[in-house]
Specification:
275 residues; mainly alpha; globular
Length: 275
């Protein structure tokens, strides 16, 4: 990992955290409905946006849906360490691992033997089906029927009636809608687990920072970490992955501490990427 990239990541995270905690009221000025939810998903590491920003006003595409699904099932770090092959010719480099994982695990067959349909508009029924699977519902076992995915989402409380009506009656599934559906899914209980999806990602998969979720008001309990939670070396506190980094940054922000040193020599994982 390049020092330049790490510095950029640190600055980005700090700015995002300060924005949410201090200036979230400006979200209403945006020409979309779920800008604040997009910010929170970004801080949690579940939504990264595009080089031009969140692009919430445009339709989602199938490649973006694949990336979001992998994050919501807590597999992003796992797939970065493996190789999953697929037969499709139209998958952008940033979505290769995600589509490969989905194909390998029979989560997608693509639109043909050669194409996944990466740049086709993502339909609401397709993405909500992804979310239901992330929540432990299996359509192959009869938990729900694909044509009635939106109705199943309404039934389990993923959507409120007004949200369901808006998505059901819309001719496009925009990235703004994808953000809303993803955020609502985090607050929905996983089938048979007794935990919400966010709790599962924090406590079972350990792919989301409990500290960031606590600061955002999405996770209950005492403040999750202290400085003693981190090992130290002669060069600073040891941070090994993205979740530990977020935990550490949130801890320092909460305590208004500056000048701490972090040891990144054992850090693993990728920076950047789309969505």
């Amino acid at each position: 990992m390049k020092v330049r990239d790490m510095k950029k990541l640190l600055i980005t995270i700090i700015i995002l955290l300060l924005f949410i905690m201090l200036f979230s009221n400006v979200a209403g000025a945006q020409p979309v409905n779920n800008f604040e939810e997009a910010d929170m998903l970004k801080i949690l590491g579940l939504f990264k946006g595009t080089p031009s920003g969140y692009d919430l006003e445009r339709p989602s595409n199938r490649a973006e849906g694949a990336v979001m699904l992998i994050r919501l099932i807590g597999m992003e770090d796992y797939i970065s360490q493996k190789v999953f092959l697929h037969p499709f010719n139209d998958v952008p480099e940033w979505a290769e691992p995600q589509v490969g994982y989905m194909f390998t695990h029979k989560l997608t067959n693509g639109i043909s033997k050669e194409d996944y349909g990466s740049y086709l508009d993502l339909k609401s029924i397709q993405y909500v089906t992804f979310l239901l699977r992330a929540l432990g519902y299996d359509d192959s076992l009869g938990d729900f029927n694909y044509p009635e995915s939106l109705e199943k989402a309404l039934d389990i409380g993923l959507f409120e009636q007004a949200e369901y009506d808006a998505i059901k009656n819309s001719s496009q599934f925009k990235r703004d809608d994808m953000v809303l559906a993803s955020f609502r899914a985090l607050q929905t209980e996983v089938k048979g687990l007794g935990k919400t999806l966010l709790q599962k990602l924090i406590e079972n998969e350990r792919s989301v920072s409990s500290t960031a979720a606590w600061l955002l008001g999405l996770y209950d309990g005492p403040f999750p970490v202290t400085y003693s939670s981190f090992d130290t070396s002669e060069t600073g506190y040891i941070v090994k992955n993205r979740v530990e980094l977020m935990d550490f940054l949130c801890l320092t922000l909460k305590n208004h501490i500056t000048g701490v040193e972090i040891d990144f020599r054992e850090y693993s994982g990728e920076l950047g990427g789309n969505d």
